[in-house]
Amino acid sequence: MTAQPWHATVLTLYPEMFPGPLGVSLSGEALARGTWALEARDIREHGLGRHRAVDDTPAGGGAGMVLRCDVLGAAIDAAGEAGDTRPRLLMSPRGRPLTQARVRALSTGPGIVVVCGRFEGVDERVIAGRGLEEVSIGDYILSGGEIAALVLLDACIRLLPGVMGKVASGEEESFEAGTLEYPHYTRPRDWEGRAIPDVLTGGNHRAIAAWRRAESERLTRERRPDLLPPGKG
Ligand code: SAH
After folding, report:
1. What pTM does this model have?
2. Which domains, and CATH codes, for the chain?
């Protein structure tokens, strides 16, 4: 029996944006191999009337347009098969900020259904009505959820078994240990008067590990003290 691919369904007004950058390099090769599968579905297929309308003006007035809950609800209902246990996410600047821990949890599940917002966002009722988990990729506003969904998918896909050449390289990185990663160097040993730190070329593996741990802690304390456990900052 071959394993089921990790299955991503994206609901979007711009399905042509997928797989986009995920079609190249390691994620593209994994897609071609069937490690993961992607379905980009056009929300407009569920649009209303001759013009397949998907949005309308905001109740209460104001600028912009809002994605209709009936249209989005129908698109979500058509996206999953019976018994689909995949989490349903909505890319949203109001969501919980995405973390490596959430990415890891999603990558070990069956896949995701992800809704990409546009315009001013989506009618609030569909979020509760379809149990959407709102996910933000940072405190800034994008013009749509598609690039945010690509970010989320990329982060999940690289963790799928067999996607990254060397498994260990996923485990030492920033955030996995709750700290930022130590600095990297490669040849040449001297470049424009800057040398690789001696400890890294000395061959003492215990000393190297200690140096890397100390550098991780130093960088985290300097740049992201919020990542340190209470009392260590
Ligand atoms: N009016 C909204 C912004 C809408 S931006 C507000 O002020 O909160 C349009 C769409 O882009 C959103 O519905 C969402 O799907 C996506 N988006 C924008 N910024 C995002 C972010 N930081 N993280 C995730 N999705 C985002």
Report:
1. 0.95
2. 6-157 (3.40.1280.10), 174-227 (1.10.1270.20)
